[in-house]
Predict the structure.
Amino acid sequence: MSLSVVSLGMLTIDEIVFSDKVDNPKGKDDRFGILGGAGTYAIVGARLLLPQAKARQVGWVIHLGHDFPRDLLIEVCSWGTYAKVIDTPERPTTRARNIYFGELRHFEFLTPKLQIDHDMLDDKLLQSQTFHIIGTPKRCIDVVKGILAKRQEVTEAREDPYFIWEPMEHSCSPQNLPIFMEAMRLVNVFSPNEDEFAKLLGHTLEYGQEIPIEVLSVRSDMLRLDGSLDAIVVRLGPRGAYVAESTRHRHLAAYHTPARIGNRVVDVTGGGNAFLGGYCLGMVKETLSPELTQHESAAVFGTIAASFAIEQVGMPSLTFGLDGTELWNGERVTDRMSDYLADIVSQLA
């Protein structure tokens, strides 16, 4: 079975700290020693959209340090994904801390990180249909060129894959636009979040400030002037996602909104990564509706993936119904997808 999605993001062991206890109406408690990392969230985002029998269509690389907890390993194994596990007994597992001040987030590594690069991919991973890349533009360029070069040595990999690039916020600045444009020419989808998009264009959003949709439209077209990108997808958190293609632009709402009954947002850590894991999978699936383009359909996959990722601190929970059906956070993913898709299609009608 060929792979549909590979993420080059990392698995980390995380701390989630809610520093602003005054602006913490849900009374969330700090958590330590939980699964995290952009790669982990992207992988679980893609995985939960697949039935158990197709779990190994999702692949990644995991570095296990000498301190990797057994309970977390059991949790990862329960997903049934394809994983190249690299034991690194000489070092601790990469650990990180997310600190929330109200809605503002600060991120820091607690141990030296060990990034995933193209040289760590085995032949099966190299043959994936899509790749999720997170990093600076230089890292993106190096990884894409490396994957394409190594795929030439794998006879079964005949067509170029889709590359979906998620930038690092610290690299987003107008001074870096030339190398950003160079990287964008190598990928199919560029997906910053709202803050990263603003900073790339020389603006810093104040607390609670949003980019107007009209501005997103104009600025997205500016970044796509040479036509090399298939789409720019700006992740807008609680406002959903903005999909800018050459043929049209579309703003898709988030699944969890104040108007939706049962809004269960607990911790938004990893929501954007899960969105892109789901998006990758959506790019190799049939479009969900004739009213949607391939990229809009992929964004629906991403939206559903993100909705499960943010309903708890840490990873969504996988259990099984009496009939053996997979349940994520106690719910069938197909039911949530159907409800959301009906809402989106009715808005497009």
Remarks:
- The two ends are 38 Å apart (CA to CA).
- The mean pLDDT is 92.
